[in-house]
Amino acid sequence: MVNMQLGDVAAWYDVHGDGEAVVLLHGAFVDSRMFAPAMPSLVGRFRVYTNDRRGHGHTPDVPGPISYDVMAEDTIAFLEQVVREPAHLIGHSDGANVALLVALRRPDLVRKLVLISGNFHYDGILPGVLDGFEDEETMRYLGSNYGAVSPDGEEHFPIVARKLAEMWETQPDLTPEDLKAVSTRTLVMSGDDDSVSLEHTIALYRAIADSELAIIPGTSHLLVMEKPNEVYPLIADFLTNDPVPTRQPIRRAAPA
Questions:
Q1: Would you say residue 246 lies in a domain?
Q2: Domain annotation covers residue 122
Q3: β-strand pairing of 20-25 with 9-16
Q4: 0.85 exceeded by the pTM?
């Protein structure tokens, strides 16, 4: 476990295993601990990096707002200075949104892309979902989890929570036209009862030409915790193997 200075951020990361590089990008209000269930499927096949973003987990917050743009730039710096080679990016929720921006800005740094429960535009979140983070009991639980490892202490959690809430009001704001520039082979994944609307997830899948879609039945936005034994082997297979030639291609049919 190491802290690496990336610009103004003392970024915490850990690395396990050998092979092609995989970088795991966690969601909001949590940190790399959420990926513990991923390790049995990935370590042994890949060199797996876990990285806590600014204001999350072991990485301290810094003055100023948090945005997807700045987190994408942090991740690009991490890939350049720590990983030092193209990597597979696996992102959940906010981590998926960050991974998507990295793939758009620096496709040379990305081998394959896995977007789990991500949204390319802020209107992709179902109405009322974010209101749940105003619940006192939920915030107390998240604050305690944050304080268990954060160098800033539990008392700093409301500041980070406010920064994220302000970000979500206007970000991300990509369009389907923007997504056409994604050249990386991509797996789009979602729960069937996700906080991101299924219509939005399908729009994400359709806008990225070289993409595949997986909807995990009986799961929510937290599908990576609810059914890790379905989610992570599917991801490992996607990262390890080439696409299977389909016999009746429609979307992937060669131009006439």
A1: no
A2: yes
A3: unpaired
A4: yes
